[in-house]
Each structure stands twice: as structure tokens, then as C-alpha cells.
Amino acid sequence: MASRIRSQLSYRTSFVLDVVAQVLGQSIELVAILVVFTQVGSLGGFDRDEVVLMYALAATAFGLADLAVGQIEELPEHIRTGELDVLLLRPLGTLAQIISADVALKRLGRVAAGLAVLGYALATSGIDWTPVRVLVALTAPPVGAVIFAAVWVAANSVSFWLVDGREVANSVTYGSNFSTSYPITVYGPWLRRILCFAVPGAFVAYFPALALLGRPDPLGFPEALRYASPLVAAVAVGVAALIWRAGVRRYQGTGS
Amino acid sequence: MIIKTDRLGRDFLVGGRLRRTRVTAVADVSIDVARGEAVGFLGPNGAGKSTTIKMLTGVLVPSSGSAQVCGLDPVRERRALARRIGVVFGQRSQLWWDLPLAESFALHGAIHRVPAVRHRERLDECVELLDMAAFLATPVRQLSLGQRMRGEVTAALLHSPELLVLDEPTIGLDLASKERLRTFLSAVNARGDVTLLLTTHDLPDVERLCRRVVVIDRGRVLVDDELSTLRTRFAGNRTLVVELTAPEPPLLGLDGVVEVTVEAQGMRQRLEFTAVTSAAELIARVALRVELRDVTVDEPSIEDLVRTLYAS
Hints:
- The structure holds 2 protein chains of 2 kinds.
- Chain A is mostly helical.
- Chain A has one domain (2-250).
- In chain A, 68% of the residues lie in helices and 0% in strands.
- Chain A contains 12 helices and no strands.
- Chain B has helices at 49-56, 78-82, 101-111, 116-129, 145-157, 175-190, 203-209, 227-233, 279-289, 302-311, and strands spanning 3-15, 20-29, 32-33, 38-42, 64-69, 85-89, 163-167, 195-199, 212-217, 220-226, 238-244, 257-263, 268-273, 292-298.
- The relative contact order of chain B is 0.13.
- The interface between A and B is medium-sized, with 18 and 27 residues.
């Protein structure tokens, strides 16, 4: 582990460029939001600062999840080549081996960018701070990261059933980042339901943001949902674990 | 019993998205292997050898039947089992491609939590017996196949497994490398604390290492017996090779001899004789007719043997 981190730091210029690229990549979406708001006053009933807050929560959670389990995107490759055999022969957890195969420090760039915007948004969106809101602000990014991580593990497990599950997995991974950055009110009712209850993206940023802002839900969902993210995360992890387990049992290996 | 399987079977889904068919790779394999045995697992390509091995090591989940290895359920207790067995896949490396061999060993030891002293001892022994000192510092990707296989076998043995499973360990190796590996493995097995299960297409591997062979075909056990019993049961013809002091015409007309081949201008003759004929008696009869310088008896190779099995 330490040696991998050292090896990444040894190419300092390239490392710095990588981080900068990650920060820029992450900021493009922010710029997109800001551009939209030069044309309209509100988006799905939320003003600019409120949407930026949601974006920041989602971006930080995404960055943290990417740092922790980003290597899961190698799973389809491990399955296709049969390399998973080797991992299964070691007395270690299979998922743990896959996600720890590489620690891409450049991914810290995303987290840093997210945190910077989050700090700004929390300071400027006029939040009426209470102990509960402080708690929500502190826990929302890690809890959101857990939700993202669970969704990605579940999505990548598709590769156990489909030889080329990579596309499915990628669309879920990056789609989840994009879709959680906006208030779910901008989506049609079906997509909204999916985001609330199937792929619980709404619990990454939308509901925690409502809790922080203390404003009524334009969709009229019960207020308890705003604080339900940790519970949703726990359920998501459970479901992802079941899918993963079923997937590993489905594993067919390759010939010879 | 270190391995016990009961009607083990595994199906695969093959084909594209639209038309998928179910193919049975392993249909019905029941085998028992006792501690300390060395068992050769033979069969043509696609017979189900690798699939069986993967089910025994917890990589694949059986579709039917059950298996117990070291008293554990390979799938449910995969991690516990991994600590007690060593596995070498000839076609797939378990070493870290970019790390020097020595570091791969260190990592392997750490993963299996091998105590440092034990690790040292075991490693020194393997390094010496397999003559690896010269390339311990070389990254795995730069090793020759023979060197890498020695490394693979060492890695699989570092945590002192009770069972060593080898899937085509000598595939692609040159004769000298094969021989070195065989000598090493037979020494490891001879000490009695490691059970060997190996699949191979290389029959000399089996002749050198295994007393017992299990032949499978189309996912079923065709034969499971001692190699020597197998030899007598399916005994093909043996060949008496006689070296003569002077050239002689072909030694025809001997009872039990089915074919005579003359070599070296009549100085050497090969007499192929049936399984029921006694070699000693045949030699005595030949000695009455010609003056012998030397005799040898060639046993049928298991290659012939397995061929007769498939034919029957």
C-alpha cells in the first residue's frame, strides 16, 4: 500500500497535472450550473445557491466514493480475463482485493474540489445552523459516498451475468454523479421515483440539502426522508452485498 | 480424507445474448483422496479437469453434488480453505507481475500470515532445491516460463498447505525444467505432509509423481485406480528389447510374441509380447536361440493406456 502511494508521488509533475485534471473535470459541471442560472432564476424551484449546495454535496460524496471503491470499475476486466480466479484463491475478501488494488491519489483532486465548493455553499446559502443541521452537513458527504459505493458495486456486478457489463456499469456510475447534482424536481415523475427509491441518488444530495436549507419539499415527501440518508445507505449496502454475493456464485471463470 | 466429492457437477451457460445453451462440463465426479496421496487427474481437453479443480478450490460453485476439502466447504469457507491449500495454475500467474520475485514471496507470506521464521525456512529450502537464487531480484514479468513456474510452486508452498493442487504445472516447459519440477514435487510429496493433486497432459508427470490416477471424460470418472493396477488391467503389450552380440535374422516363431522389429542391422530386436506372457520365460527362450548382450523390458506408456481407455 505504502509503496503504491510512494510510486504515485514520485512523478510529481505528472501527479500534480492529474490532480488538476480531476479538479477541472469536476468543475465543468459547476460551470454548467452557473451558466444555466445566468438564463433562469430558478431550477426546479431552487435558486442558484441551493442548487450549488446540492452539487457540492453530490460532488464530495462522489469523490469520496471514487477514492474508496473506484477500482471496482476493473471488475468487468477481472471477470472477462478470468483473473478473478487468482483473487478467489487468496484468503482475503474478493471485493476488498479489487478495490484496494490501486489507490489513485489523483482522485483526491475531486474530493478537494467538492469540499471547496461545499464550504463555499454552506457559508453563503444562509443556513440557519442548528446542531442537527451541523450533523447533517458533516455526515451527508460520507453517507452519500456509501450510497454511491453500494450502487457502483451492484452495477458492476452485472458483469457476472453479462460478458460485457462494462457499459451498463459505467452509465450507472457516471449517470449517478450527474443526476444527483440537480434537485430531483427537474426530472419527470418516473425518473424521480427511480432516483428516490430504486437507485437512491436523491438521498445523496437532494434530501440532505432540504434538511440543511430547512425549506419545504416542493414534491411534498414526508419530512422524515430528509434525515433518512444513513438508513438508506445501510439498506443500499445490504442490497449491494446480496447482489455481489449472487454474482460471485454465478461466476463462470474462463476456460482452463 | 482430504478431498471428498459426492456426485459433483457443474453446468455452464455458453453462447451469445440470444441463444444460450447449457453445457455440462462436469456431470458426476465422486472421488476420495486420502492425506499424503499423490493423484494424477487425466483426461482430454474439455473433460472437466480444470472445472473440477476450480470447484475443489472454491473458485466455482458446483451446480450439483457436494465437495469437502480439508473438511471444509470450498465455497462457503473459501477463505479458510485458501489458508490450507496451495494452488498452481500453469496458465495463470499468482505472482505480482511488476514486483521482483522475492517481493512477491514476501507479499504472499504476509497475506497468509506466515510467521517470519517459518517463511524464511520454507523459502530458503525452496530457493535451494529449485535453484532460484539467481533471479530472486528479477521482476516476475521478466522471468522465463520455467523460472516463473518455479516461483509459482514456491509461492503455493510458502504457507505450508496440506494440499497442493497443480493444474498443468509443466505446460510449455522444456525437458530440463519439467524434470527439475518433478523431482522437487516428488520430494515434497515424499515427506508425507503435502497431498498432491495434479492435472496434466504430460504423462511422464504422472508416472514420476502419482501412484493413483483418476481419468475423467465428458465430466465423468472413467477410471480411478492405482497406476500399477491400471497397467495390469488394461495392460497393452510389453516390448522386450534384446541386444545381440552378432547380427541375427528376425526372431520369429516365439510363443506370445506378436511383432518383431529389427534395428541396428539385426544387432537389436524389439519383440512385442502379450500381457499374459511372462517376460522372464520369454527371455529364457530367446537366450536358447541367440547369444544376448543385454535385455530391457519396455512397459506400455500410460499414453497408450489412456488411449485404450478412451477407445473402450
